[in-house]
Write a structure and sequence with these properties.
It holds the Pfam family Pkinase. This protein is of the alpha+beta class. 35% of the residues lie in helices and 18% in strands.
C-alpha cells in the first residue's frame, strides 16, 4: 500500500509498523506542525468495520479523558480509496518492541509498578464507561517517549549479547498509553466468542464460560509478569496446553468452572479435571508445561524488593474465577501501589 496521504499530513516520513490490519506511517502534519502516526487500514470489510469501531471508541474515550493521558489520542480520520485512515498523536515504541530490542531483559520493579498503575487506571477508566478492551498485550501499550538510558545489568543471562555488553536499556519516562481499540466492545450479556491474543487470554474465554470486564484484568496480570521476567508467561498455541500451563503456575482450575465448560471445551476435561497429561498432543508439550515454575518462584527469581506485594497482587489479578478476580479499581488500592514508604527499601 504505497499511496499519497491526501491531507494536511501529506509528507510521509517512514513506516512505523505493519500488521494484519494494514500499516502505520509516520507523517508530518503541516496544519498542526507536528509528527503524527497514520494508521492505514486494509480495504477489506472486516478491517474497515473494526476501524470504524475503533474511531467511535476513541472519540468516546477522548470525550471523557480530558487530559488525554490514558489512551492514545485520535487527531482525525478519513476514508481514502476504500482505506480508512486514522491520524493519531505520535508516541514511542510499544512495551513489546522495547523488550525485544533489550534482548528480552526485564524492567526494574519500580518501573513495572508505574506502568502497572497507569495500565490499571486506563482499564478502570474504560470499564467505568462500560467498555472492555479485550486485546491488552505489550504490543498495544506504547511508551510516550522513545528515550532511554543504559544501566548496568547485573543479572547477565544466557540471553545477554555475546559482545559482553552488561548493560540494559531502561525507559527515561514510565509514561504509557494504551492503543488499538478495534476489538473493544460494550459490556453485554452472554459474550461468548473468542477474544484476546492467545498468551493473554483468560481461562473463562478458553472454557467458553462467557466473559466480561475481568478478562482485561487477567491480561494485565499476564503483562505485569512479562515485564518482570522479560518473557510471556504462557507461551503456547494450543488450548489444553495453555490450561495445563495455568494449572502448573497457579494451581488447579476450580471444579465449578470445569463442570460448566461449553461443548467446544468439553474435550479438555475428563472426570471433573483437566485431561492432562493424558490429552497432551506431544511429549514436547508435556515438557513445556513441566518446566514452568510456580508463580511465586517465578517472581522471586526476578524481583528483589516488593516481591511479596507483587505476588499477592498477581494472585488477585490471575484468579481463575472471574467473579473472584480483583477489579481494576480494586487492584489500584493494593499495597503494591500504595505502600510508598517501602518503595526503595
Amino acid at each position: 500500500m504505497n499511496f499519497f496521504v491526501p491531507m494536511a499530513a501529506d509528507k510521509i516520513n517512514s513506516k512505523m509498523g505493519e500488521g494484519t490490519f494494514g500499516q502505520v506511517l509516520e507523517c508530518w502534519d503541516r496544519e498542526r506542525k507536528e509528527m503524527v502516526a497514520v494508521k492505514i487500514v486494509r480495504g477489506i470489510k472486516k478491517y474497515r468495520e473494526a476501524a470504524m469501531i475503533e474511531i467511535e471508541v476513541l472519540q468516546q474515550l477522548a470525550k471523557h479523558d480530558k487530559g488525554g493521558n490514558r489512551c492514545v489520542q485520535i487527531r482525525n480520520w478519513f476514508d481514502y480509496r476504500n482505506h480508512i485512515c486514522i491520524v493519531f498523536e505520535k508516541l514511542g515504541p510499544s512495551l513489546y518492541d522495547f523488550l525485544r530490542k533489550n534482548n528480552y531483559r526485564s524492567f526494574p520493579i519500580d518501573l513495572v509498578r508505574e506502568i502497572g498503575r497507569q495500565l490499571l487506571e486506563c482499564v478502570a477508566f474504560m470499564h467505568d464507561l462500560r467498555l472492555i478492551h479485550t486485546d491488552l498485550k505489550p504490543e498495544n501499550i506504547l511508551l510516550v517517549s522513545p528515550e532511554y538510558v543504559k544501566v548496568p545489568d547485573y543479572k547477565v543471562s544466557s540471553r545477554s549479547p555475546k559482545d559482553g555488553s552488561y548493560f540494559k536499556r531502561v525507559p527515561k519516562s514510565s509514561a504509557i498509553k494504551v492503543i488499538d481499540f478495534g476489538s473493544t466492545t460494550y459490556e453485554r450479556q452472554d459474550q461468548n466468542y473468542i477474544v484476546s491474543t492467545r498468551h493473554y487470554r483468560a481461562p473463562e474465554v478458553i472454557l467458553g464460560l462467557g466473559w466480561s470486564y475481568p478478562c482485561d484484568v487477567w491480561s494485565v496480570g499476564c503483562i505485569l509478569v512479562e515485564l518482570c521476567t522479560g518473557e510471556a508467561l504462557f507461551q503456547t498455541h494450543e488450548n489444553l496446553e495453555h490450561l495445563a500451563m495455568m494449572e502448573r503456575v497457579l494451581g488447579p482450575l476450580p471444579q465449578h468452572m470445569l463442570k460448566r465448560v461449553d461443548r467446544h471445551a468439553e474435550k479438555y476435561v475428563r472426570r471433573g479435571r483437566l485431561d492432562w497429561p493424558e490429552g497432551a498432543t506431544s511429549r514436547e508439550s508435556i515438557k513445556a508445561v513441566l518446566k514452568l515454575p510456580r508463580l511465586q518462584n517465578l517472581i522471586m527469581q526476578h524481583v528483589d524488593h516488593s516481591a511479596g506485594d507483587l505476588i499477592h497482587l498477581l494472585q488477585g489479578l490471575l484468579r481463575y474465577d472471574p467473579s473472584d478476580r480483583l477489579t481494576a479499581l480494586g487492584a489500584l488500592r493494593h499495597p503494591f501501589f500504595t505502600r510508598d514508604h517501602l518503595r526503595r527499601s
